[in-house]
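Problem statement: downstream parser choked on a complex file, so we are re-checking the raw output for the GN1 run. The parser issue turned out to be on our end (a line-ending mismatch), but while we're here, posting the original submission so the record is complete.
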Amino acid sequence: MKHDKKHDLKQIARQFQIYGDFVRFEPHGTGHINDTYAVTYDQGGRGVRYTFQRINHSIFKDPPRLMDNVVCVTDHIRKKLQQNSRHAVSRSVLTVIRTHDGAAYYRDAEGSYWRAYLFIEGARTYDVLETLEMAWQAAKAFGEFQCCLADLSEPLTETIPDFHNAQKRYRTFQEVLKKDCCNRAASAKAEIDFLNANAGLFDVLPRLVEAGKIPLRTTHNDTKINNVMIDDKTHEGVCVIDLDTVMPGLSLYDFGDIVRTTASNSLEDEKDLSKVKSELPRFEAILDGYLAGAGKFLNSAEVDHMVHGGKLITMVIGTRFLTDYLDGDNYFKVHREGHNLDRCRTQFKLVQSLMEQEEDLNRLVRKCYQKNVKG
Ligand code: ADP
Ligand code: GN1
Ligand code: MG
């Protein structure tokens, strides 16, 4: 997806309840979906930053309802933090800045939807986590996020229907492959074969959900590791961000995406596939951190399928990258030719690696669960 249009950030920022003088803005972060900017204001001689985002409206069809979700979730978390937290609440949960009309978003003359958050300072996101400690902390933050939302009673809108419906993602892939509108299928033969050979993975969780063994919960659904801010000094996971897809889902989707983006010490689009492999100490760190945050409310079927969750989500995201490649790169932002195919290759290589280590990984699950939950 191409995002090269220039926006008048100064005019947009004027719509929000922010004091002081607009100083500058710059593109920020490496997300694949929204356009994100850091906007600096001078407030009494001090530079203060805000995060501005243009919500990707072609992906999120109903931004007003999406923002209702974000407000609902952040209010819920804020209330809990105000009672319990040792930390500054405005650094631990996203703070939505309102427009002068009191709305959570602004719609500009071109129909784009904008929102603004307090910028979380003294922390950053990583596309690859550097240490096991950071991996533990990040996974714990996502686990606690899930735990905190376990008693949310307000219903959330499904901002992207069937977001993690793996069987549907596979059917879409098959349709796009059949059309092969860009004549790219021949260049992805190995990946197409791998996907077709392993599509059976997609049938496991639907059966367990149907049998009532795995519950629907409120989940983040995009727990990619650069969606948690890591404190520069303490390396704690200070704030879970990118709340666009918080909606009903399975806990295993969230654990699975942490595995996908952390188990290997490599970038999501690494071209040297020999670097893409699940590493047991990294897997143990995220497992232990996640269970420290969420372990107490997981049921035994969820715990038994944690490794499966990692394989499944990695396979699903790989399928989505492959589909977007075949379809002409309409969904994810791409920065080079064949970018989505490169991303697909790393995902499928990681799935293969997780499969090879499955026994060891399941042994780690039992060990960490015993330690964190059974005590
Ligand atoms: P996308 O959906 O495109 O991934 P994100 O909401 O994840 O958008 O934002 C993209 C990046 O912007 C994040 O990875 C993070 O580095 C940065 N970011 C987002 N929100 C904030 C914030 N409130 N404070 C500081 N940085 C932020
Ligand atoms: C997108 O928004 P971002 O970059 O955190 C995508 C996720 C994918 C991820 C792959 C709404 O996440 O589903 O797993 O890219 N988000 C959406 O990197 O589709
Ligand atoms: Mg993101």
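For whoever reads this later: The CA atoms of residues 147 and 297 lie 7 Å apart.
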